[in-house]
Design a protein that fits this description.
Length: about 425
């Protein structure tokens, strides 16, 4: 198998099509609003609120609830003084406001019956609260003076002014961003119907990998030959961002163990993604385990991400797609960005493509003529892009980059100021 990017993209699309079609036919899932995975999901129905937002008339300020009519004649030269009534704090049940009094009220507290406006404490005399009387306390004492009238409704947040009962707080088909999760929670929605999503098994391989739960430990370097597993958290995050539900599997270089672990996980997943163990070495665990099961390995004319594997595993008559990426972390993520994430984002109702822009190179760049090279670039103050070195182990360069920079097949020299296609990496 030796392919161009376009050929491999088409092959991956064809391989994943039945799984994505099954997804569209599934009934929606219902996820609790507190579930951390909700963040990447998309509503499967419009959500109506059963409660008004705000749920009751409440104060926008700390101050005094009054009847506006009582302050109609107030002025700086002739302030109106009112006896202080019972206090309502946020969380207190609704109180009763007596005409001709001023009821202390805190931000968010229910406006007491009989009051129709709030005057902020700093506009009152004295401009701070003294001893307050709440329900159950001895009766309130003292008075407070107002030196200006107040209009009805001032600093009162009306029940339902944000959303009326039965109104749509979220439409169907939108991603559950923080603000949208916030409005669901505010409306007391317990669980939300979401579009079904692909369940992906992310497998990282290699005897060199320290366990993910050792993150935080300093790598012990050449004495051990071990490194931290970057690909599992990275690919899992990328796939979750694309709307997938992810489980992970780490394996050493024993092919039988890896094969058994993957086959043992198939019941729970719709797609298997692997990284590492597919090129020309002597211990290529993914290739050794999966080639006998029909997964094809070969290369795509791109760099990084040259070695690739593709095929499917049988689960009781259903073909579960398997997509194998190279192990170098930059290669693995760029492979995911190129071949898999757009399909998943599209299926999840998200924009399939990264933000694409044509930017000018800030300097000359060289690229292998027989490969489509994907470099990492930073956008300078003049809008031109500076690319970093091509090595596919340079993960900190990837993390620091703003864009992926596409240097197409067939050209080996790109002079400064050449316009190139770029994909925004982090938004
Ligand atoms: N003789 C040849 N050697 C290599 C070729 C080739 O064509 N001929 N291709 C090179 C290219 S390009 C790539 S990309 C890699 C791909 O190799 P594998 O997919 O077999 O990956 P590994 O050998 O297992 O690992 C490569 C590299 O990445 C590191 N790695 C792997 N998994 C992780 C992980 N989860 N977290 C962090 N780092 C990981 C691994 O330690 C290696 O350094 O092959 C080249 N060789
Ligand atoms: O294809 Mo490898 O991914 O160049 O480093």
């Amino acid at each position: 198998m030796r392919r161009t990017i376009a050929e491999h993209t088409a092959a991956v699309r064809e391989l994943l099509a039945p799984a994505l079609q099954r997804l569209r036919e599934h009934a929606p899932e219902t996820i609790p609003v507190g579930d951390p995975d909700l963040r990447t999901r998309v509503t499967a129905a419009a959500i109506l609120t059963g409660t008004p937002l705000p749920p009751f008339d409440n104060s926008q300020m700390d101050g005094y609830a009054v009847r506006a009519a009582d302050l109609a004649d107030a002025s700086a030269s002739a302030p109106v003084s009112l006896p202080i009534g019972r206090t309502t704090a946020a969380g207190d049940r609704i109180g009763q406001h007596a005409p001709g009094t001023a009821s202390p009220i805190m931000t968010g507290a229910v406006v007491p019956r009989g009051a129709d406006a709030v005057v902020p404490i700093e506009r009152c005399e004295p401009p701070q609260f003294g001893a307050l009387s709440r329900v159950g306390d001895p009766p309130p004492t003292g008075s407070v003076a107002f030196s200006a009238p107040v209009e009805v409704g001032r600093f009162v947040r009306r029940a339902g002014e944000d959303a009326r009962v039965g109104s749509e707080i979220l439409p169907e088909g939108v991603r559950l961003t923080p603000a949208r999760i916030g409005v669901l929670a505010a409306a007391g929605v317990v669980a939300v119907p979401v579009r079904p999503t692909l369940r992906v098994l992310v497998c990282s391989t290699g005897d060199e990998l320290l366990r993910t739960d050792s993150l935080g430990a300093v790598s012990r370097g050449a004495a051990t030959g071990l490194i931290h597993d970057a690909n599992t958290p990275m690919l899992a995050a990328a796939l979750r961002d694309a709307g997938a539900v992810v489980t992970t599997l780490r394996s050493g270089d024993r092919a039988n163990d890896f094969r058994d672990a993957v086959l043992g996980s198939l019941a729970e997943v719709d797609l298997v993604i692997t990284s590492g163990g597919i090129s020309a070495g002597a211990f290529e665990v993914v290739r050794e385990a999966l080639a006998p099961l029909g997964i094809a390995f070969g290369s795509v004319a791109m760099q990084p991400g040259g070695p690739q594997g593709l095929g499917s595993l049988d689960r009781d008559g259903t073909a579960i797609p398997v997509v194998c990426f190279p192990g170098n972390p930059v290669s693995a993520l760029i492979s995911a960005e190129t071949f898999v994430l757009p399909l998943l984002r599209d299926a999840a109702g998200l924009p399939a493509e990264r933000r694409r822009e044509r930017l000018r190179l800030a300097h000359d760049a060289e690229s292998p003529v027989d490969k489509h090279q994907v470099r990492r670039g930073r956008i300078g103050a003049d809008g031109r892009v500076t690319v970093s070195a091509p090595g596919s182990h340079l993960l900190s360069e990837l993390a620091a980059a703003d864009v992926l920079v596409h240097l197409p097949l067939g050209i080996d020299h790109f002079p400064a100021d050449t316009p190139v296609d770029t994909w925004r990496l982090h938004d």
